[in-house]
Design goal:
The complex is a heterodimer. Chain A contains four helices and no strands. By secondary structure, chain A is mainly alpha-helical. Chain A has one domain: Non-ribosomal Peptide Synthetase Peptidyl Carrier Protein, Chain A (Orthogonal Bundle). In chain B, 40% of the residues lie in helices and 22% in strands. An eight-stranded mixed sheet of chain B has the order 11-12-10-9-8-7-6-13, with helices on both faces. A five-stranded parallel sheet of chain B has the order 3-2-1-4-5, with helices on both faces. Classes of the chains: A mainly alpha, B alpha/beta. At the A-B interface, α3 of A face α12 and β11 of B.
Chain lengths: 100, 340
């Protein structure tokens, strides 16, 4: 239910990879109740300390969908996609590339 | 607390006698009375609940509560974040705010994460409101006592200032064991009433019938308790071997009562690691029933990978073995049902 990030909203048609990674990082941090930038882009989200559970993951997916304006299909809910901020960014970037 | 300006309510098992998602729609008469009393006193009220917003908006309208809440925060995320959003939106100081929840874990969780907020049960809120409406001398007598109680809680919070420390202090224990005939009623209840964390492949009747089938299958139960109490049997996993060394998950259900503690992943992984559930691979079909997408997330969190072009998900034993769980969750394995 979070508001779309202003910069990304302006770039919604085709955000740069950097803008996308910043948005993903912000949403991941916010979902975990941590400060933006506190999670390394390649840090595993399902590590014992990250604190991701199915409900926080659900929250993250809903926020990503809300911000980016498309639904992530169930068949793309792959643990290798949601390994880290970087892998999520790669997936979303390729989705947006295909859509453009 | 200084002056009560805002009450933030929990819904399930606080305003409601039961859990909305499990079909319980009776309101708790004590909560209803206190909400009316607060409304007449001009105290702001808000709702923070871990339910989907579209369900909540229609539910509070149905219960006649729409006009009582100045703000409703409903999503599947942690409750503390919703409480923080309410405080921020209303510009209210936590010192003037009470969070009301019948679940002691939730109260402890909120006070561990939001400094200066007060978290009460319905009884504590009722006692406070009674003290306000009593004679000034009685009020004066009660306030110091409540202040002392609050100070004691604050001291406890300082001991668990970090949320992870708080979770560790909860001494969360998950106990995993094989299914026993004595579990049949609870198993049926879990399969019937759990919507978000239910695989949704088999019709409930069929899933229940298969539990009684005398075959070479494995059924695992998970129980949970912490310092706040015993939540009993919260999870069930039903596996049937196929001819390739893999197991097919026929049924999987985890009570939404575990969601506040973020335990669903640990519970699933714990059940899959039970010695009666040792297989090379685990296969399952996921059918979206409109509300069980959190279960799909849970399967992904446990490492289940979608198989292209099918609705099947597969987890291999190696990946399962490599998954690390939080150190504040203690998982114990029992060889058999110990009785209740």
């Amino acid at each position: 239910m979070g508001k779309p990030h202003r910069n990304l909203e302006a770039e919604r048609e085709k955000p740069s990879r950097q803008a996308l990674e910043e948005t993903v990082a912000r949403l991941v941090a916010s979902t975990l109740g941590k400060k933006s930038g506190s999670i390394q882009p390649d840090a595993p989200l399902f590590s014992s300390q990250a604190g991701f559970d199915s409900f926080s993951l659900m929250e993250l997916v809903l926020r990503l969908e809300d911000t980016l304006g498309f639904k992530i299909p169930d068949e793309d809910l792959d643990p290798d996609v949601f390994l880290s901020i970087k892998t999520i960014t790669s997936y979303l970037h390729s989705r947006l590339e295909r859509r453009a | 607390m200084r002056v009560l300006k805002l009450v933030i309510w929990d819904l399930d098992e606080t305003i409601l006698a039961g859990i909305l998602e499990e079909g319980d729609e009776d309101t708790n008469p004590v909560a209803s009375r206190l909400m009316q009393q607060l409304d007449h006193s001009g105290v702001l009220q808000a709702l923070a609940t871990q339910n989907q917003p579209e369900i909540i908006l229609s539910a509070i309208k149905k219960f006649g509560l729409s006009d009582l809440f100045v703000q409703v925060e409903a999503d599947l995320g942690p409750k503390a974040k919703k409480v923080k959003r309410i405080l921020e939106a209303l510009g209210t100081n936590p010192l003037d705010t009470v969070f009301v929840d019948q679940d002691a874990f939730e109260r402890g969780s909120i006070t561990a994460q939001i400094q200066d907020i007060t978290a009460w049960t319905l009884s504590e809120l009722e006692a406070y409101l009674k003290s306000l409406s009593s004679a000034a001398t009685q009020e004066g007598r009660r306030r110091p006592q409540m202040y002392r109680e609050q100070q004691a809680r604050s001291r406890g919070r300082k001991d668990t200032a970090d949320y992870t420390d708080f979770l560790r202090s909860c001494n969360i224990q998950i106990s995993i064991r094989p299914y026993a005939p004595e579990d049949s009623d609870r198993a049926e209840e879990l399969l019937t009433r759990t919507h978000r964390m239910n695989l949704g492949v088999l019709p409930v009747d069929e899933a229940v019938t298969r539990l009684k089938r005398p075959a070479e299958h494995s059924i695992i139960m998970a129980e949970m308790k912490d310092v706040y109490g015993d939540m009993g049997r919260c999870g069930i996993l039903h596996l049937t071997p196929d001819k390739t060394g893999a197991a097919i998950i026929e049924s999987l259900a985890i009570s939404c009562r575990t969601r506040a503690r973020g335990l669903s992943l640990a519970m699933l992984v714990g059940m899959l690691r039970h010695r009666d559930a040792q297989f090379d691979r685990y296969r399952c079909h996921y059918v979206n029933n409109g509300s069980n997408r959190p279960l799909r997330m849970l399967l992904m969190g446990a490492g289940f990978k979608p198989q292209p072009g099918t609705d099947e998900l597969v987890l291999n034993a190696e990946r399962l073995a490599g998954l690390k769980l939080p150190d504040w969750i203690n998982i114990g394995y029992c060889p058999a049902f110990q009785g209740k």
